Amino acid sequence: MKVVVSIGGSVLAPDLDPARVDAFADVVGQLERAGHTVGVVVGGGTVARDYITTARDLGANEIELDQLGIAVTRLNARLLIAALDDRSESVPSKSYESGHEAMRRGDVPVLGGTVAGQTTDAVSAAFAEYVDADLLVYATSVDGVYDADPNVEDGATRFDSLTAGELVDVVADLEMNAGSNAPVDLLAAKLIQRSGLRAIVLDGTEPERVARAVEGEHEGTEIVPAGD
Ligand code: UTP
Hints:
By secondary structure, this protein is α/β, with parallel strands linked by helices. The protein has 9 helices and 7 strands; from the N terminus they run E-H-H-E-H-H-H-E-H-E-E-H-H-E-H-E.
């Protein structure tokens, strides 16, 4: 199976712990040994947010802030690249094309952000579509998609499964409520809907869960293409 794994920055590097990054590299190795082709997209997490907040106070404009965010995602991508050693390219792929080429050569592409105006949620969906992935796994700091923000609403319920259209509706509602965080943003949800990708949103704080999810065992939310 061809799998794209999206690792949130807050999951890969909430702090700088080599053991955690190594554990994600081990999961990539495990998936490869099981015969899967793997690509990875890495987010910026709290470090990106801290840089963005600081630079905003310094008067940087929104595009400059996005570029700063992209730089941090690529720093995190380099951490994973260091752990993957010679199994990946030596630098983060800056485009879907170069990531795909790396994959075809048998290397593991590791992407951070690509262009301003989006997040790595959308990069992951677009890259998965570009390489014609069978599965996209979002390893996030929440354990799935809820009908409301579980950090705000006590009674929020997690979906076991959603169609991509339902995901778009849920995420659009969450994004309209100020302060609510969706585990996957609206652009990503729309890309998933458009492409007909199968995706799983899960708690990635234990990297091993990603490997289990690819083998069909997970407790997160599965996004199924309409019609399935
Ligand atoms: P992230 O993908 O980490 O943002 O990119 P996020 O979704 O807020 O982080 P998580 O999921 O909670 O960890 C960090 C920032 O980098 C810029 C955006 O400003 C984004 O908020 N970015 C990232 C881009 O402009 N383009 C990209 O392709 C990726």
